[in-house]
## 1
Amino acid sequence: MDNKQKLEEILRKRGIAALHTDDTKEEDIPEASDRFKKLMDIYYTLKVTADMETPYWYNRIWWENDGDLIEVRRAKAVAGGYAHTTPTILPYEKLVMNKTKDIRGAFPFPWVCASFFNSLAESLMNEVDAPAENEADSVSVVGAGGGNVTESYGEIISIAKKFGMRKEDIPVLVKVSKYWDGISVEDVSTKYAKMIPEYDQFSAVMDSVVVMFDSFAIPQGREVMNYYMPLQYGFDEIQKMCDDRIALVMGEAEDDGILGMSRGYEGSL
């Protein structure tokens, strides 16, 4: 199938008449701007980094609000994590800030999956006390999607042979993860999964690594920024849209339970 046929097939599936396609042609992808090239050079030079800034605040505020509605408690914890994220803005950026204070950074989700960190707690703490070894470049694989910290070096501890975490953050990781032992999303989903018929077959598939992990419990990085919304409407307008929707969905409770919460949680959005 040539490009014209592909285009006609796509249009047909969308119910669009394949008119005026005779003059179609593929356009060359324009070269990236100097500003963007500089940002990408910085990104590819840096190592994959994890830190405990967001998990610490999420955990702290979650337990401070013990007894609150789960949805409200979760919202407060997430907001606390965001509010305490150290901003990092590069000179060439127009859409500023990242998931963490590190340019190529991420953070653990112990409330979702704590078993991995809990199982490594002792060995991680032993590494914190071990003398510094190796140079960064000798233990990092840099290439397509590279930057992985495959071994510990200096003041950096390798997590799962991918992320580098500073030694000072490791005790925080160990302590925060312990709070979630037995009650994380992973633990609770496993508890209920065992009640389902043919769980043994599911477990055997997981053990054989046909499927690498429980996708319901482990975040997979499929959270992609919707740039269209802020660029098209601006943040002020997005806030107004949220306020309008909240007023519509979370208005008078009437006969809708406590404060009309079920409308907000069960649908209408």
Note: Strands lie at 49-50, 105-106, 140-141, 148-149, 156-159, 163-166.
## 2
Amino acid sequence: MNAPVIPDTDTTPGLPVNWALARRTAARLVPAGPPVSAEVARELVERLRADAAVAEGHVREVTGMGEGLPLLPADVVDRPAWAAAAIDGMAELTSGAQLPKTARAARAITGTTAGLQIGGVLAFVGARVLGQYDPFGGPAKDGRLLLVAPNVYAAQQALDVPSGDFGLWVCLHEATHRLQFTAVPWLRRYFADEVGHFLSISTDSGTALLERLPEAVKALKASKGDSLALVEILQGPEQKAVLDRLLALTTLLEGHADHVMDAAGPEVVPSVATIRARFTQRRRGGGLVDRILRALLGVDAKVKQYAVGSAFTRQVVEQVGMEGFNKAWTSPDTLPTRDELAAPEKWLARVP
């Protein structure tokens, strides 16, 4: 009997990442949270878990979305648990990507390197992120809202704002993200398909990439080190089109959440003005090493997304109200483009 032929290439869907190694790396590198008493920790966890449902009730009042959906608590976790959950969500989100054939040996090496890198990145982010709604997380992979208790506590202490107000304010942002994905039936699949499409597009030849490098260097200098500018210039035309749609969507999601968390008003969070002012300054802060890492990880680009998306939401709501803004959620075709996010009047003219 002939021995079975084992192909020397791998076409397994998904990114070539050793996810188990990523989890181990993140767990090993993420720093411990701030020291607190058992009583303080227990009170914070219980309050955050309940605040997530309370916050979503306020979000529904502001947005007019989600009527009839259950009001659910959040999962309150520590830093290693958040990193592990984030890795699971990334693995699920990218599992459908159809990448070019890869030699098994090369895929194994790439997977190890990527696992180490992702684990290291999430260890860094895991010490800072306050919360996250992962539309692909949870046991059933149908969504999970996470709040990182030690980071909420550390941020509240650093900002010197009322603990109850700050926790509810954070919950307003993350509950808005949960409502975006649960109240808009097509959004989760659309996001996953766009990510899979982007990852599945075959990369250009090395020659074409090298040809764009001088232009990329010029763009990076002109943008004063904006890492997103480098990412964009190195994409081929098809990848650039998909990336534009993804950036437009995430900018809308982040800006909408930022707008809603402040629109809830002082009746819900009495110190909202102080929290917003101090938190915005915190987003811009950090030492030299921290700022470099933020730039490399694209965190500064995300801060810009908040500003652009929030301005778009505010201007549209001022002109046509929240009901008019909600037309953005009708279908993928009614989502604003990146150009329209910067010029809301263009979107208003296109989506009457």
Note: The CA atoms of residues 65 and 183 lie 6 Å apart.
## 3
Amino acid sequence: MPKRSGFAALWASQATSNTADGILAAAAPLLVASITRDPVIVAGMTVVQFLPWLVFTLPAGALTDRMDRRKLLVAGNLLRALGFALLAASLAAGWQSVWLLYAAVFVAGTAETIVDNAALTVPPRLVPRAQLERANGRLFATQSVVNTFVGPPIGSVLMAVAATLAFFTSAGLFAVAAAAALLLPQLRPTVHEPDPTGAGEAPPRSSVLADIAAGWGHFWRHRLLRRVALISASFNFFGTATGAVLVLLATGPLGVPEAWYGLFIAVPAAGAILGSLVAERVIPWIGGGPVMWAAALVPAASFAVLGLSTNLALVLVGMFLAAVATACNQIVVSTLRQAAVPDALLGRVTAAYRLIVLGAVPFGGLAGGVLASAFGLQPTFVIAAVGLALAAVLLMPGVTTAALRRAELD
């Protein structure tokens, strides 16, 4: 039974926390750059940001399937609020340290693994299957808007006034996100909900490690979901490889002034928003299989344009279309997970999926830097285009609209 008020609470909570994330996306790098110009220490922010995803993703999935997901959303956002409030208080007291920032970002990243994993499992409990594409589209579009167009400009302005103001504001927004999550209905794992017939007994509790193993095993045995995860990981690998050096290409061969770089990267962000909003119509129209093919081949073509042309208009059109295709694909794979995986396993399977997909990100960034150093900027984009196209040819066969639908019915 759909719970529209419940979805509105989830939407509000996610929008508020994503706004805080956007503020921090500008504020945290600006703070560390104001403390030190050491590139190793500055780059350490990326390591600290992604380390929790590699370490805590699978345990977060187990928690999602063992606890009330509403409580996880509330607790995770409160933990983030506390971490950044303490950082802001330390800055106000004159204790300016990279290590304090690292600690706050690490704590927030750990909480984010719990919040994001839980949030991705909630929509199927609030809306019927027929509305999942629309619900996921609204959530992802909102995330793109506030993370790109709302949060970072606010963060930059607040940092210009006072660093403490930026971090206190983020802390306050995370607290509001926790309050919005309190408006959700109870979201206890299905396996632990009382049997309305009064028959049967609750299954015995297993250990957390056993829960993680069960979730990973279910994910790995699901051939289609496993293949989709590997495809998405290849998207992320080559996308991050090019994204890591995009600023050098834009401000170099493409001739984009540094002051205009924010507008340059806003073009694909606008494409991602559009893709999220039109996905509910595009996916039923052409099918999930063609959408996934487009999500591989359109970005590959965009990388090729970036590597072979310096026509800025052509480059921006390619980046925009690639972002539209990628956003539509994100809706396809999220809906597949939510519809094909039993609710009692959804948190752990989502965590296993995200471990594969997000685990490719730091390796892609490293590869992009190495390739650019060895072969140059534009050849790196050509290599990424060929690599992504080959990955699609090798991994996409069997990923059809019919196969996606059958997986949802199994």
Note: Residues 192-202 have pLDDT under 50 and may be disordered.
## 4
Amino acid sequence: MQRRHLVALAGLAIAGASALTAPAWAQSNEIKIAHIYSKTGPLEAYGKQTQTGFMMGLDYATGGTMTVNGKKIVVIEKDDQGKPDLGKSLLAAAYADDKAALAVGPTSSGVALAMLPVAEEYKKILLVEPAVADSITGDKWNKYIFRTGRNSSQDAISNAVAVDKPGVTVATLAQDNAFGRDGVKAFKDALKKAKLAHEEYLPPATTDFTAGAQRLIDKLKDQPGRKIIWIVWAGAGNPFKIVDLDLKRYNIEIATGGNILPAMAAYKALPGMEGAAYYYFGIPKNPVNEAMVSMHYKEFKTPPDFFTAGGFSAAMAVVTALKKTGGDTNTNKLISAMEGMSFDTPKGKMTFRKEDHQAMQSMYHFKIKVDPAFAWGVPELVHEIKPEEMDIPIRNKR
């Protein structure tokens, strides 16, 4: 009797062990990636584009299988609402509870800065896309952070290439946050020939730009030569409204970087305006961009946008790294694979710089053309600014 009881217990133990090992085995056959972004909040439009691009990019990079080396890619989406504390706790939950091998995101620089220590604590990769602040791959960086998104220096230095000429006086208009201040600092550092007359910072949710614009006009109106207000702005609010304040009377021009297509509707009033863009669907000529444009038109009947390209690039980086490790998600193996790694994107080739894991990438000097066929000012390529033409500083303490 006792022996039969022991056999039954042993049978239960074996059944219990196999019940425990089955899910563990199933998990090992999956690669979980957390995508934390602004599904809602002030940067919702950017977040949605990134998500679309990321899923399209995974599909393209895996040849439609959503697998690498027989392992299924599972994307876990989380909405940080643009709130730093929420982003931080969502990333911790993704690593600890969801067992995500790595994470991608977020949309906001403020949220990204709150997340960096979490990646370090859990010793897992955070691939930053599209948050821009220099400090993410600068003084707040740690070795678990990679970024496919451009940084403030890439934005600013490429824009400086477009406007930095002798006899030019510039004033800047930016949001009073990490994105705005880092952008202006990098722009200022990149100016070698032009003179900077004033920096104007306004609350991120500003809708009435009159007072700020008046301060800018007062600083510029009596300056000799060419006068430019360089704008760095993200999310709600339309700083281009300042054109209505009769800037032409003082021969003051506007310059800015590229933006999402709805925001570039304001550029229609600025034919001839120059700047530098991270992406515009009509500019790069390569097979990956052609594939993304065609996929996007097929699904949405519209062209892909600024942040769609970023999400797609992040997916290309992730799959390229996983292919290099044979689907192994061990963090140290991924870091070794990704440092110095080049990968194809809709913008052409990007390379993760070994020193700070920032993706070196082309930017596009453009001039705005008005075309009645488009609801936005069309950025026509003046010159592709290649990575080697931009001296992007390494700002971390590695």
Note: The longest strand covers residues 71-79.
